[in-house]
Amino acid sequence: MSKRDAERKGTANHAGRTPDAITMLETVLADRERTLGAGHPDTLASRGNLANAYQAAGRTQEAIALFEPLLADRERILGSEHPNTLRTRANLANAYQAAGRAPDAIAILEPVLEDHERTLGGEHPSALASRYNLANAYQAAGRTQEAIATFEPLLADLERNLGPEHPNTLNTRGTLASAYQAAGRTQETIAILEPLLAGRERILGAEHPDTLATRGTLANAYQAAGRTAEAIAIFEPLLADLERGLGGEHPSTLSTRGNLANAYQAAGRADDAIAILEPLLADQQRTLGAEHLNALRARANLANAYQAAGRAPEAIAIFEPLLADRERILGVEHPSSLSTRGNLANAYQGAGRADDALAIFEPLLGDLERILGAEHPDTFAGRGNLANAYQAAGRTDDAIAILEPLLADLERTLGAEHPDTLGSRGNLAGAYQAAARTQDAIAILEPLLGDLERILGAEHPDTLGSRGNLANAYQAAGRAQDAIAILEPLVGDLERILGRDHPDTLAGRGNLANAYQATGRIDDAIAVIAPLLEDRERMLGAQHPNTLNTRNTLANAYQDAGRTEDAIAIFEPLVADLEQILGAGHPTTLGSANNLASAYQDAGRTDDAIAIFEPLVADLERTLGAEHPDTVGSRGNLARAYEAAGRTADAERVRSGEPSSFTLGDTAAGENTFIV
Asked: Where is this region: Disordered (predicted)?
């Protein structure tokens, strides 16, 4: 076999046995540099081929290290307007984009497009390709409107010059659909993809790779539209077709396994998702290598699934080393490294480590603004995440101070009807409610529900979630009957649309029980909560946070019903379980300890209550601060216990602005809150 034949074979294997291809290409390049010289056209071509192979293997920094001097050499030897020089500039831009350096890519692609249009003409295939690449770079940089403004006329030009059924025309239609989806225009996305899929099946055949890819893209769009069952109905047979046609280890097959797992997770089937993601990670690491970008992504997806399943310690055990690996391989400023920092902070927050979460979120936001820009979608998300962390830490005013201007920025940059803008309105309403500004929350949630029904549809998960949030706000405003009037039909709709065992359905049942309890319908509340606990233990396991919270809620209902011993029988093992699973200082553990102490007090076991309340107040002051509402409430409970024990002086010493009660019940009311 000649060296040229060997190089062709190596290049063709980029999508398959990439390590073997790289070894071959490295050998060919060394031979050509030795025999032909560094400036020979074949040597330059070999450097470009090796750089492409590195990029295909996820070794982006090594690709850039080849492309940058190759571009300089080609400009010097061939001239800046030679087709190979222009092609190398485009390849370097693609590598920059893969490395998360979208602004650097754009800085190359904009003049490349100008050069192509000037030297070749605006309708030359290379000029059209440059417009396509530039639009992709705009989208990667979060400049979605500029991407759409480039894609739309490009598609019209391709349809006119190449025809509506040319592969490049079809590809551009699909990419425009992706840009619409990024802009929150999901219905327009689906309106493109459904006929695109039909066209590809007719023109290319059902098993053509582009047809298979379009099936996956349409499934993703269905999922984004809340049509999760339809997404799964595509992904499951698509995966079987890919395994049969391309093999179980082909990159497209592996990515579809991940997409199916994500759809299962969105459908509340966390265990099914994990059952896919655990072996998928092993396969990605074995076939691509542990440091390939897809293998790193598989680790992140598995960690997210663990977190969704309430397995926060396992998620953290993945995210911590993953962050170190991504920073080492991709660099600390790569978007994937930045997103992993945010994911780790979310995992810390889910594990009750609020200070650790804030220690990441606060500097992360500054980095996002500096690296990606103040108006990049990831920066907006970072602001929302920091606000949520402040709210979880009881710093509600700080959360509102972020969320109010964030909403204004989203309305200005994305539009009032973009999903992220709608989500931000929901988040601000949640913060107002946490700050006891219930009327302000309702003033947002009532029109928001109408907008969601109009934009996304009455059965979209976000719309259903907004109905639940409005019901919770009504309940907080003392309008429990209005809350029940929403929640009773909502639970039926959730069971019909999402399924009885979906997490949102379970949360809706919990919220309805809370509303019954608030109106004094304790028996009705218990009739909902008791089977809900059984379902959560069956679906999520006894140690899932929502299961633990439902045990707490049932115990509270028993206590309200005067069944104090039944309440204590739940609270005592629950506190022990929470201490073992979450730690003694976790807010949920402290809340349940407070509830146990209150049950002891109701049972006349005042000394047992005081024995819990005294260290509990100290723990809350240490972990949440002296002015946190839960700390203030627990001090009030301790004061009442002292009074019941005849220790009036001690009661006066600890009493400080106590609210009427302090309870940490079922967190189902917050499970449907929007997160930007």
From this structure: 1-21
159-176 core/surface letters (b: 16 or more CB in 10 A; e: else): eeebeeeeebbbbbbbbb
**Interatomic CA distance for residues 171 and 625, integer angstroms:** 56
Count of Cβ atoms closer than 10 Å to residue 668 Cβ: 26
Give pLDDT tens digits for 289-325.
Answer: 898 888 999 999 999 999 888 788 899 999 999 999 9
CA distance 562 to 320: 46
Indicate the length of the chain as a whole number.
Answer: 676
DSSP result, 125-164: HHHHHHHHHHHHHHHHTT-HHHHHHHHHHHHHHHHHHT-T
Of residues 48, 24, 45, 26, the one with CA closest to residue 36: 45
Single-letter code of the amino acid located at 352: G
Contact between 103 and 135 (Cβ < 8 Å) = no
The residue among 27, 34, 33 whose CA lies nearest residue 10 is 27
CA distance 137 to 93: 9
Q: Which of 301, 309, 257 is nearest to 283 (CA)?
A: 257
For the record, the structure tokens of 449 come out as: 């529900």
138-159 pLDDT, tens digit each: 998 888 999 999 999 999 999 9
Higher pLDDT, 152 or 587: 152
CATH classification (class only), 523-670: mainly alpha
Between the CA of residue 108 and those of 79, 87, 88, 123, what are the distances in Å? Answer: 16, 11, 11, 20
CA distances from 465 to 264, 448, 469 (A): 19, 11, 6
